[in-house]
Amino acid sequence: MDIARISSKGQITIPIEIRKRLGLKEGDKVVFIEKDNNIILLNSNRLAFEEFQKEMTGQAEKADINTEQDVVDLVKKVRQQIWEERYEGNA
After folding, report:
1. Which CATH number is correct for 1-57, 3.50.50.60, 2.10.260.10, 3.40.50.1100, 3.40.50.2300?
2. Which of 8, 17, 30, 86 is the most buried (most CB within 10 A)?
């Protein structure tokens, strides 16, 4: 258990071990979430990434992307489409 003291301005210093575990560095933002009468401190970047992962769950299967080669093929297809839109349409 780590303890921090609140300053007169309502500020606290997050103990180094907690910062390491949360992957926090100077300038990062944190999120406070209330759950079951407790306050949870989270790294806002990690939270955003986890939410993005949840939203994307199942999208690869819907797009029939099942292997690494499928991803490579999709990237090639998209690059070709971009090339055609940018350069072949202007000729």
Report:
1. 2.10.260.10
2. 30
